């Protein structure tokens, strides 16, 4: 680990010197002379006097380097039965034309554009086109309900909205355009124009004098394609909304310069992907993973990125991911543990992996939620490649902790995303703000300044940025997650701080209990929540989904699971209730809605989260929660 240790130490002790060197991973119009502006602390700015264009770095420069015929984007859509590829030269032509069309519609540098689209190539083109002309894009996850979309429109106040007419799910067509129309009825802000990508599965009615077809915008832009606009490194590239505790979404702002440098550095050093290699982040452009590792990072390094419109199971079966890897020669696959658990549930022995030639696959990367040791072991066994956990957040934009496959690969540890990534000064602090000893759980914090690529503020609300993230411990960013650093310097993330429960004065991690439950051979996935108890303050309750084909009675398995937790953690765990359910409520990105489950169990009536994947799953589990 000497290479890693030396690199990480330098990045923390001399951040200006370290990031000055990494800045040359991208092309600058005016190279920065100042690397870090500390004058506005606790809000910092990277490369404040530099200028560049992110779209040029992601597209144009690869064409200029003679690699225009290399495939840039592979669109694979099992839900529509279609595939499409775009070379870098073709991508440049499409992006330039759409950017020209947006410009002619009145979109200029600094204007916002809300993108509400399915996983189609036009979504990537729209993002890059905004970057090309200096507009700020805000992608909203396709299928978000009208009130949520309206709230984002009102906060961002876009000049234009770009939407697809519909989204395609395995069992239904989601009418995006109708949702957009409803959102615009609710919103106070009125965009100048809405550009609609018409899909044959659900052609939408266009509103006169407001809506225009994508094809018409592109056709108009072809005659006068847009060139790249020079922007400041500190200018916003995009706004990505995440849920806020007040009900008002927080607009996470990412800049142009720091973001481009961080994406280029992480793609090579964390994920070991470079020019011409095939990379697949099986996520959605509506989430941060889609922004960072479907669109920007792979294109910034000149790789080929897979854009997938489908599910891990059901399109058509649990071998869907392996089919994509084999067909397109994927070398690195990034997905969520939930996707692997869904595959494992349908194909417990991993037999479908033998149907496909997976020789191209070098590494499986997992992130988005805690990777339980059972899923880690199963994936490694059936795929025969390293399984690499990495931990980060929408706010950071790239991994805080990871196993750096392109810099200094190191042994993995089940349950740990490995070590802090260069640039991130990870501290585990106790309630008094003092560093916690090795092995002792506390609040995971990042000593300021955050590295390039991290959020720069909350959209138009610096004070909210400071009060939400920077006020918990002076000089630190509060992640909201708890965990510990072990004797080897590996980070262990146990869950959100509100997932640490207090039972009769004992602070217990629900993540530790979930890890024990997941080790039972019949369990596909699980969740443990702390519910209110008059005697003990809180008590843990477990919920498990069984693997396909399990025949044992539910009551028998429930008893075994209670005994398993007692034997592995001890009576202090106080887990006496485990219930077998047919599904756990999740967000569309795969995170289990533990907070919603806990509130229902405590007798509250929480609103149904806008990010929920399937309301019916929540309705089915509600009686078992007691709500």
Offer a concise description of the structure.
The protein has 627 residues and is an alpha/beta fold. Helix content is 32%, strand content 24%. The protein has 2 domains: 2-310 and 392-483, ANL, N-terminal domain (Rossmann fold, 3-Layer(aba) Sandwich), CATH 3.40.50.12780; 504-625, ANL, C-terminal domain (GMP Synthetase, Chain A, domain 3, 2-Layer Sandwich).
Helical stretch tally: 18
Unreliable stretches = none
User: What percentage of amino acids are in beta strands?
Assistant: 15-25%
Rg over alpha carbons = 24 Å
CATH topology annotation of the largest domain: Rossmann fold
Structural class: alpha/beta
Q: From the 3D coordinates, which CATH architecture of the largest domain would you assign? A: 3-Layer(aba) Sandwich
Please give the alpha-carbon distance between the first and last residues: 50 Å
DSSP strand tally: 32
Proportion of helical residues = 25-40%
